[in-house]
UniProtKB/TrEMBL annotation:
Keywords: Hydrolase. It holds the Pfam family 4HBT. The keyword Hydrolase applies. It comes from Sphingomonas brevis. It comes from the Bacteria. Residues 56-131 form the Thioesterase domain. This is PaaI family thioesterase. CDD domains: PaaI_thioesterase.
């Protein structure tokens, strides 16, 4: 359905997907965000050699970026008026990511007013978990409607 015909939650989720795609930092990371429902997210991304550290696997920068974004968008799916801010994020590396497709899956855990908790995990192209993280996010004073990339239907 075209975004201009959507309303309510669907319009908000599609607008968040557009916001993600508009962020300049995503020019550095080939990725695509999907929000199947409020409180859940998935980011499909490519682990390329230009993201590797000297030992030939993905640098922690890629892990953090994808985990934080997946958890953040899962939480911001529940908030239709304000942009959330990451206040803390804890991550655990469990397996080196090698070249190939991967996905970060985010899930809201708790909070519905000012502070939200969400978690995320990265699964590689072999279906194995490579990392897991938990973040806390709080409402900012930034209105989503005031952000150029946020295009609600």
């Amino acid at each position: 359905m075209p975004p201009e015909r959507l309303s309510g939650e669907d319009a908000h989720l599609r607008a968040l997907e557009a916001l993600y795609a508009s962020a300049p930092v995503n020019d550095l990371f080939e990725s695509r965000l999907t929000l199947p429902e409020a409180g859940r997210s998935e980011i499909r991304f490519n682990v390329a050699p230009d993201t590797f550290h000297a030992a030939g696997a993905a640098h922690g920068t890629l892990y953090f970026k994808m985990l934080d974004d997946a958890a953040f968008y899962a939480a911001n799916g529940l908030v239709s008026d304000r942009f959330l801010l990451t206040t803390a994020f804890n991550l655990h590396f469990t397996k080196p990511m090698r070249e190939g497709e991967a996905r970060a899956e985010g899930r809201w855990v708790s909070g519905k007013r000012r502070v939200f908790v969400a978690e995320a995990r990265i699964v590689d192209c072999e279906g194995e978990e490579c990392a897991r993280g938990t973040g806390t996010f709080m409402r900012s004073h930034i209105a989503l409607s005031g952000l150029d990339g946020y295009r609600a239907g």
